[in-house]
Design goal:
129 residues; 12% helix; globular; 9 strands; mainly beta; five-stranded antiparallel beta sheet
Length: 129
């Protein structure tokens, strides 16, 4: 049952499970996933419903938690969600939101971006280090 859930919210942290491989060696593991708070700037308030936010943030990764201001519809300049994302994949600077023949771009801001080396796929340092 725990394996089926994948990512679990432990409040205040999040745990991500992955399958243990034969001859597991923690030094050779390449963890490319991290939980990052993401803000969508100037998102119109009619898109602040949970289902719609999950679909939009799903373009970047797996939405985990919506912050309290966004959840309580305290409309401001951005909607904010904690997303489990694969840092080895394409990182979006904006997201195209389409609905009923209407489309617009929304700027994506990443908070506390972890260092990630695209050469060896390891979180904790970057390529220049």
């Amino acid at each position: 049952m725990a394996w089926a859930r994948g990512t679990m919210n432990l409040k205040p942290g999040v745990i991500r499970l992955f399958q243990l491989s034969k001859d597991f060696n923690r030094y050779t593991q390449h963890q490319t996933h991290a939980q990052v708070w993401i803000c969508l700037m100037d998102l119109p308030w009619e898109y602040w419903r949970d289902k719609i936010l999950r679909e939009i943030f799903g373009a970047v990764g797996k939405p985990l938690i919506t912050d309290s201001a966004t959840q309580n519809h305290h409309f401001g300049h951005y909607a904010r969600v904690l997303v489990n994302m694969d840092l080895s994949k394409h990182i979006f600077e904006d997201i195209l939101v389409e609905i009923d023949g209407y489309a617009f771009n929304v700027e994506v801001i990443y908070e506390c971006w972890p260092q990630f080396c695209s050469h060896c796929d390891i979180i904790g340092h970057n390529l220049s280090n």
